[in-house]
Design a protein that fits this description.
Radius of gyration: 22 Å
Number of helices: 11
Strand content: 25-35%
Number of strands: 20
Strand order of the largest sheet: 5-4-3-8-11-12
Structural class: alpha/beta
Distance between the termini: 50 Å
Length: about 425
């Protein structure tokens, strides 16, 4: 039997798995160019953060700032946020910003909220214990800050806008809509409202998409002259994103390269490196395709698209996506039918699925997310003995008439009924 090795179990004790294939198969492995690039050590990571591109050192820029927010991405990205978060915290301390004025927000966009276990994977136990760590929710706690030149309404997380120092830690990698992720994407869609994301992803740029398709060109994976990227960059500037940290990762999710500094020059440098790091030979007309999606292990549709393109057009063929032991739709199979249309079948949801809990409480609206198996243990009031949430309200005025009931079909999901109006509202959930 022939043997190939693929990385597996992103965020679940990553390891390499050996696959055995028949000797009669003609097997070719197409790794990204940076597959075996050595990981950066602690000194190299610290040097990059302490010498940012296009801006003064963070300890200098942060002087005089009152409130700091550090954004980080979710488990759909392999970013090891803790590596740079501790360095950033040390810089903020030297600038005179105390722990009580620093918070972390998971820029999950429209993805599901992170559980406490997820947050520890990203930030480490110490940060989650010491600092307020919030999930962004696109349906609540967002305020309008204006419109872009493309006409997109910008509605941004109120806690982010409350802070006068904004830092984002994320990963740069290929993205079907933006060409490359990272940078401004931490703001749009990362901490934007659902309404803003809906406009940005859909109506605002529909004409550009249609024009490209009418000319026989693809409207995805466009790296340059991409209005989605330009629009997101404009919104990030409106927000005042002060510093970004973007990483590329190696075959096992370790940081292979790091870029830190002001938004535009840092993302430009990261983009140039990412194009080379993720470059891979374009293969097609294969009978069977095995796609590994370790760098975005929980987004099943990404390897499905790549695998479908690599299959032959004469019917038949199959493939398997691998990469993550848990999460949403972590593995599946696909094939080409007689028309050459890519098909998807036999996907399943992980048994330990996560459900989102929405709860209205006096003084704020709270988003909670816990494993379904722990639903009965979730506190139903503020300050419960299990400590699942902690109030941190800054509301200056409020009028409300709220009742709450359980969703009839979704165990553990609460439905809020009534009206609520806020002024000067900020904040979401703290996990303790």
């Amino acid at each position: 039997m022939q043997k190939i090795t693929l990385p597996h179990n992103a965020w679940f004790r990553p390891r390499e798995v050996v696959y055995s294939l028949p000797e009669t198969w003609e097997v070719r492995v197409h790794n990204i160019a940076g597959y075996n690039k050595p990981a950066l050590n602690k000194d190299q990571i610290q040097k990059t953060v302490l010498r940012p591109t296009g801006m003064p050192p963070l300890r200098e820029m942060a002087k005089g700032r009152k409130e700091a927010v550090i954004l980080f991405d979710d488990l759909t990205r392999g970013t090891v946020a803790a590596e740079t978060a501790y360095i950033i915290l040390d810089e903020l301390k030297k600038a005179g910003i105390t722990e009580g004025h620093i918070r972390f927000i998971a820029a999950v966009a429209n993805h599901h909220a992170l559980t406490r276990v997820d947050l520890v994977k990203k930030l480490g136990e110490e940060i989650v214990r010491r600092f307020p760590v919030f999930n962004h929710c696109p349906f609540i706690n967002c305020q309008e800050i204006g419109k872009t030149s493309h006409g997109t309404i910008a509605e941004i997380n109120s806690e982010v806008m409350y802070c006068d120092l904004k830092i984002a830690i994320g990963q740069i990698l290929p993205h079907p809509i933006y060409g490359l992720s990272g940078g401004a994407k931490m703001i749009m869609p990362g901490v934007s409202s659902y309404r803003s994301v809906l406009a940005h992803h859909g109506r605002t740029h529909q004409a550009w998409r249609q024009e490209r398709m009418d000319r026989g060109m693809i409207a995805s994976d466009v790296v340059t002259n991409n209005p989605f990227r330009d629009d997101a960059m404009e919104i990030a500037k409106m927000v005042g994103l002060d510093m970004v940290v973007n990483a590329t990762i190696d075959r096992l999710g370790k940081t292979a390269a790091l870029f830190a500094g002001a938004l535009e020059p840092t993302h430009a440098a990261a983009a140039r490196a990412a194009i080379e790091h993720y470059r891979v030979e374009n293969t097609k007309d294969n009978d069977i395709v095995i796609v590994n999606n370790f760098i975005k292990a929980s987004e099943f549709m990404v390897p499905l698209a790549a695998g479908a393109r690599a299959l032959g057009r004469d019917g038949g063929g199959g493939g398997q996506c691998t990469g993550r032991a848990g999460g949403t739709l972590p593995d599946g199979q696909f094939r080409d039918d007689d028309s050459g249309r890519s098909m998807y079948a036999d996907n399943h949801r992980a048994k330990s699925k996560t459900v989102n809990h929405l709860q209205q409480v006096p003084g704020r609206t709270v988003t909670r997310a816990v494993p379904e198996s722990r639903e009965s243990d979730v506190c139903d009031k503020m300050g419960g003995s299990d400590g699942c949430i902690e109030e941190d309200a800054r509301d200056k005025s409020e009028s409300s008439s709220i009742s709450e009931r359980r969703h009839p079909d979704l165990p553990g999901v609460f439905i809020s009924e009534g009206r609520k109006e806020f002024a000067d509202f900020s904040g979401t959930t703290k996990y303790t």
